[in-house]
Amino acid sequence: MEAATFLPSDPSVLVEASLSCPFCLAEADEIVIEGGVLDASARCSCVACSRERSVALDPEQFLRLSLTVPRTG
Fold this sequence. Notes:
Blueprint: E1 2-3, H1 12-18, E2 30-34, E3 41-46, E4 51-56, H2 59-66, E5 71-72
Parallel strand pairs: 1-4, 2-5
Antiparallel strand pairs: 2-3, 3-4
């Protein structure tokens, strides 16, 4: 699993770029947070190339994303 590369203080555009598809570079069409604060990940889906991947989040990144994206389990 890859790790997210954005800082919690980064502007939204850098957060979105960090979670964009590494294969076709399209912005993630769907981002869903999974797990809890200590084992969080973001499931990112790309409609452009039909790929899905999980990105590990540290606690600060989890907090930043938990304010703006849906969460499961």
